[in-house]
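re: ur msg from earlier - yeah i can do the adenosine-5'-triphosphate complex, just paste it... oh wait u already did. ok heres what im feeding in:
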Amino acid sequence: MSDLKKQPLQAVKGMNDILPPESARWEWLEAKMRSVLQRYGYQNVRTPIVEPTALFVRGIGEVTDIVEKEMYAFEDRADKHGQAEHLALRPEMTAGVVRAMTEHSFLRDSGRRLYYFGPMFRREKPQKGRYRQFHQMGVEALGFAGPDVDAEVILMGSRLLRELGLLDGEHFRLELNCLGAPDERRAHREALVAYLEQHKAMLDEDSQRRMYSNPLRVLDTKNPALQDMANGAPKLLDFLGEASLAHFNGVRAILDAAGVKYTINPRLVRGLDYYNLTVFEWITDKLGSQGTVCGGGRYDGLIEQLGGKPAPAVGFGMGIERMLLLLEEVGVAPDAPVPDAYAIVPSASGLPQVMVALEGLRAEGVTVVMHPGQSSMKSQFKKADASGARVALIFGDDELARGEVGLKPLRNEGEAQSLRKLAEVASWAHELRNA
Ligand code: ATP
Ligand code: MG
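and the outut:
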């Protein structure tokens, strides 16, 4: 027992620590994403990680992989009346955003353009690019029916990928499809089920199970033996009426004008039940079967399905881990952040004065790391070098007594040390920031 207690604890399988220097890449990517999102007038939204299980069952659909197999759902402790709530870790955030908008009557007067970042949870088999806690950046534009906003969210994704240098090569393809309206899907469904019945003998277990519950998802099969069958199946595109086609063509006309390249994939259905009309995915073939980096589409029925006043909506979710894997794969890396300066403090007696001086530098926007504790000058200079800082600030006792600090460039060997007046920080701080 006591031995067991001493064993170091480990993180849950498929749930990762994000540590420096890797965490700096996350911050870099998130900042890039935020900058793009804000340029389109999208606003940040943060909803709880835990929601009532019913939200996802109703929102995502009962016969989806997520709800059937992947959701972390549990019963909370009973309250004093013996009632326990059924709760789940969110597997995606669209349902939570819709709940929040309805709960706070945020769609009463106008539409909303929102974005979020955060962890999502799915009990999948952990592998490269597939984790049990993973992170998404997503956008939701709620209350807008026209193809202009479908095109806007696609353009936004496209701008982000372009600014990251990911649209220059052949890293990505954008696949597009139109899932039409419920009655069109019903007509297509009948034809599809009839077709699947003809091929029943060859279907795998998953497809047999989905054939009646969610036949559209059979077209989504990754089973190589079923590709020809799926390609030959009746296409939803052939069942679309005038209004759906006009919407689809509206989206395409904007993408064409903006020079956004895409391919139409009639088999693209996406894993969640709530989509209609436009659906899309950005796919790379550099990450194997974890190649879908971003997926989204229109979900005009979801708000009403979750008890809100009917309103149209469109959005997408982008996997942060997969984006980072791809950026690494293609060699796009941010410069590792380094401090402007490293403070060397030879003796403890001057610490109050030193730390006040460092506050003065930080107030001027300088990034300065202080050597913690006391050690030899030699080891402090070593640490200063290792930090990547451009200059060392030397707070020697003599200098301090004169109200001065020594400044030694670390990058350009041989450059002489100079002295600065602590009382005149503002006059030389900018030099450190831009060193
Ligand atoms: P996949 O087909 O790869 O399972 P999905 O269709 O289930 O993806 P969505 O629900 O659309 O994915 O989520 C949007 C994005 O979130 C995906 O495109 C992907 O980048 C990312 N993602 C989804 N599941 C995981 C996971 N388990 N681990 C890491 N990233 C994930
Ligand atoms: Mg999935």
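cool cool. The mean pLDDT is 94. ping me if u need the other ligands too
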